[in-house]
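Suppose a classmate hands you a notebook page containing two proteins, each written out with its sequence and a corresponding row of structure tokens. How would you begin to make sense of it? This section walks through that situation. The first entry is reproduced here exactly as it would appear on such a page.
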Amino acid sequence: SYIERQNLTMRMSLRRYTRLTNAFSKKIENHVHALSLFYMYYNFARPNQVLNGRTPAIAAGFADRIWTLEEIAKLTNFN
């Protein structure tokens, strides 16, 4: 049930997986990048109400603060 909930969250958050359009790139590299950005945002930048406003990364001890989108964007090598 945890995996099914995670799949639903991903499908609802990433428009490319809702099957309402075929206007997305079909290259596997682009799918990998989209998933990577989503999970980075979900785990490091998006506060979770169940975790008392902390992110999953903070709750697990992987981070000590909520990351900004600018910090996540700086991690990419698309310069």
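The notebook's second entry, a different protein, reads as follows.
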Amino acid sequence: MGVFRIVLTPWRYKYILSGGNKGCFFCEYIKRPELDADNLVFYRGRYSFGVLNRYPYMWGHVMVAPYKHVGDLEELTDEELAGLLKEAYSVRRAVAEVARCDDILMGINVGRAAGAGVEAHLHIHIIPTCREIDPGTPPEALEDMLRRYRDELAKIWS
């Protein structure tokens, strides 16, 4: 049996206190490619796009979401599902390279009970597990680190 760890993430308080997402930020990001750098979007594929988690538990946490607004894998066509998974795995390889970490968690939270923060828009979490973020990191320093990481990931597809 594994050991549970408590990961202190004070920068998430801003997100928690805001009451979470109002509406679907994935759909907003899809409609506004000119804001990709500000929104931390680093990848746009045929079936999905990749975005950094602005309030990560672990360093390098990204999400891959389909363009189609669905809450479950069953709502995708076979082609969309295969495309999403193939693109997510390409993002996983890029994250491993840029984060310099081969230990990667990939997961999908379906429904609130499973921990989905955005229930209505399916997304795949890709989390390198090699490096935690120092809880003392000031929010502005974290934002700067995220932007540099986003730019490194974006270079892979440019």
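A careful reader of the second entry would note: The chain has a mean pLDDT of 87.
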